Amino acid sequence: MEFPLLNKLSLEGEMPVVSISIDVEKDVVLRYMKENDLQMPVVIDSDRELSAILGVRALPTNVILDKEGKAVARIVGVISEDDAEKIMKEFK
């Protein structure tokens, strides 16, 4: 699962990461975050409005935003540590 890697990148300041959850119940998301010691910010997108704006059609989808907030890349599927390092180098 990629959440531990994304959480690590977020906490180390290497790459800002915000998780978007499409789960309806906030309690379920918060419990999952706590049980897995995930500290990155999470947005609850139960109506999937944000997901639609970002063009998310499959899960997991990772959207890379530039400094202006424009989507510059989409990665559908799980990100490996090698993929994350390549992404960080490309978009720093």
CATH architecture: 3-Layer(aba) Sandwich
Sheet of most strands: 2 strands, parallel
Q: Which structural class is indicated by helix and strand composition?
A: alpha+beta
Q: So how many helices?
A: 4
Distance linking N and C termini: 24 Å
* CATH H-level homologous superfamily name: Glutaredoxin
Enumerate the strands of the largest sheet in spatial order, edge to edge or round the barrel: 1-2
Query: Mean pLDDT, as a whole number?
Result: 84
Percent helix range: 25-40%
Q: What fold name stands as the CATH topology?
A: Glutaredoxin
Element order: H for helix, E for strand:
HEHEHEEH
CATH C-level label: Alpha Beta
Whole-number tally of structural domains: 1
What integer value in Å does the Rg equal?
Answer: 13 Å
Question: Explain this structure to me?
Answer:
The structure is a single chain. The protein is of the alpha+beta class. The protein has one domain: 3-Layer(aba) Sandwich (Glutaredoxin). Helix content is 38%, strand content 18%. It is built from 4 helices and 4 strands, in the order αβαβαββα. Strands 1-2 form a two-stranded parallel ribbon. The protein has a two-stranded antiparallel sheet with strand order 3-4. β3 and β4 form a beta hairpin. The longest helix is centred in the C-terminal third of the chain and has 11 residues. 5% of the residues are buried. The model has no long low-confidence stretch (mean pLDDT 84).
